[in-house]
């Protein structure tokens, strides 16, 4: 991919979003923190959307569109790399289904951000708020599907540290962003606009770290370019020990994010021969 690995996609998307937010915040501060017409009478801190409704609207649209398009390409690339066994491949149709659902809701969230930047809060307040909900909801639901996918992959590749780390990072994002989104909605409803505006900036900044969490997902692909170095593909229907594999997590059937009795290699991606063996041996992690 132009001499760059796939991890560059989330890195670039996060940098674009960070640059967009930084540019808008810097402009508002440099202009003397002006009070815009659409702001409340006692509101001193502008929402991102307030700044985005000024002559910086082209920056807001361009930055938002570029970020979400590149980020959604990362979702699609991740699915393709798993299909080609460049990343840990899917074991059953469920992982593929969860991944596709994650992509669909990510696209919905992307559409929400692009549309909210176009339908600014100054001229289209109701449409803008609806698109904001679509943006936040789309990516949070997408993250839930991604976590569910990684949870199931963790059953079959439980000694694969990238899955474990990525799972917990994305789960933390879901919890934090949901909590902040609820607080944002409550404070806005109660007309505590300054607190609400601060929360909006925080939510947008934390979103950058969610985007960057996908960098570690692509790291194994840097070592699986050659067909001989790719992950072994075993489908559930072809696994003679399918029931044992499904129960390999713990007594409740869930994943165990530990070594599972297998040593990891030095780079933390796990040994592929160990992965093949682990699908045939039930875990001792109860």
TrEMBL record:
Residue numbers spanned by region Disordered: 252-286
Keyword Transmembrane helix assigned: yes
Domain CWH43-like N-terminal: 6-219
Cell compartments where the protein resides: Endomembrane system
Principal subcellular localisation of the protein: membrane
Protein name: CWH43-like N-terminal domain-containing protein
Originating species: Extremus antarcticus
Membrane spanning residue stretches: 7-30, 59-76, 96-118, 130-147, 167-186, 198-220
Chain intervals with Polar residues compositional bias: 269-286
Record InterPro entries: CWH43_N (IPR019402), DRAM/TMEM150_Autophagy_Mod (IPR050911)
Protein topology in the membrane: Multi-pass membrane protein
């Amino acid at each position: 991919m132009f001499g760059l690995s796939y991890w560059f996609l989330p890195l670039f998307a996060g940098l674009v979003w960070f640059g967009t937010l930084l540019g808008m915040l810097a402009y508002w501060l440099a202009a003397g923190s002006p009070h815009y017409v659409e702001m409340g009478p006692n509101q001193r801190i502008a929402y991102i959307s307030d700044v985005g409704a000024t002559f910086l609207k082209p920056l807001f649209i361009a930055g938002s569109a570029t970020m979400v398009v590149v980020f959604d390409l990362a979702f699609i690339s991740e699915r393709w790399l798993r299909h080609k066994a460049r990343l840990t491949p899917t074991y059953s149709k469920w992982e593929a289904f969860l991944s596709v659902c994650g992509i669909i809701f990510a696209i919905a969230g992307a559409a929400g951000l692009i549309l909210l930047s176009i339908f600014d809060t100054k001229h289209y307040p109701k449409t803008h708020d609806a698109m904001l909900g679509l943006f936040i909801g789309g990516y949070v639901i997408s993250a839930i599907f991604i976590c569910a996918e990684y949870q199931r992959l963790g059953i079959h590749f439980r000694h694969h540290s990238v899955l474990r780390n990525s799972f917990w990072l994305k789960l933390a994002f879901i919890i934090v962003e949901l909590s902040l989104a609820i607080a944002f909605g409550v404070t806005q409803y109660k007309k505590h606009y300054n607190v609400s505006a601060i929360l909006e900036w925080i939510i947008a900044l934390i979103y950058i770290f969610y985007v960057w969490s996908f960098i570690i997902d692509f790291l194994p692909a840097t070592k699986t370019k050659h067909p001989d170095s790719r992950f072994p593909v075993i489908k559930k229907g072809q696994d003679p020990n399918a029931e044992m594999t499904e129960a390999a997590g713990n007594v409740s059937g869930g994943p165990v994010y530990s070594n599972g009795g297998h040593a990891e290699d030095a780079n933390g991606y796990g040994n592929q021969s160990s992965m093949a063996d682990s699908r045939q041996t039930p875990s001792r992690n109860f």
